Amino acid sequence: MNMTPANLARGLALFALAAAWAWLAHQGSAGEGNPDFAAALATLPVVAIVVMLLWRAGNPLWPAAGGLAMLGLLAWLWPALRQNVALLYFVQHLATNLALAILFGRSLFGPREALVTQLSRKAHGGVISAAKARYTRKVTVAWSIFFLATALLSTALFWLAPPAVWSAFANLLTVPLLLLMFAVEHFFRYRLLAPGDRSSVADTIRAYRAATQRRTDTLANHR
Q: What is the full DSSP assignment across 33-62?
């Protein structure tokens, strides 16, 4: 991808937004700031996901009905939500990491290939070497352990450490730890694999998007 001024500006804007979000989430879950704003920030991702799922249902009445039901539920639960902001963020952090651990881990069992192996095949046109298949399986194991360990550590800190300590780990260190994990995997990939077996994360993402788009187009053509 060419680094044009527009792409650079977009990247910087996304980075600034993510940093601001992380800091505001940290303040809210640490017990600082306005509790109503903190609760709204904590529930926003869940609301966005539900709205997207309702929008994809195909029936135009679902988003409206679902949106009204969601607003009613939030209004009913709001007194409890604003008093348990840290718990909201903890549930989100725990659920996200457990879901990712299951997503990666369950692909290691049964007849299917490991998740990273599947993504690697998409990036290489469906053909990878035996060495790459073994390596990507180990990477899948590593990511499964990473997400499970993150969930366990998050739980321990939430119940045993001061709120500010857990919040710093969950809201401020999660992304740096993810980037560190990618950097370590990148190092081993270039150290252990032949040049023809290497593919960047960007290559894998592009291949996955292309495969998803082809599948979507195929389903649309059969309707």
A: S-HHHHHHHHHHHHHHHHHHHHHTTS-THH
Report domain extents, the chain.
86-221
Segment 174-216, tens digit of pLDDT: 999 999 999 999 999 989 888 777 776 676 667 666 666 665 5
> Which two structure tokens, joined as six digits, stand for 17?
């937004």
Q: Name residue 135's amino acid.
A: Y
Decide: residue 32, CB within 10 A, 0-12 exposed, 13-18 middle, 19+ buried.
Answer: middle
Q: In the block, which residue shows the tokens 């730890």?
A: 177
pTM: 0.81
C-alpha triplet 33, 171, 169: angle, nearest 5°: 115
Q: Encoding tokens for residue 137?
A: 């399986």
What secondary structure letter does DSSP report for 127? Answer: -
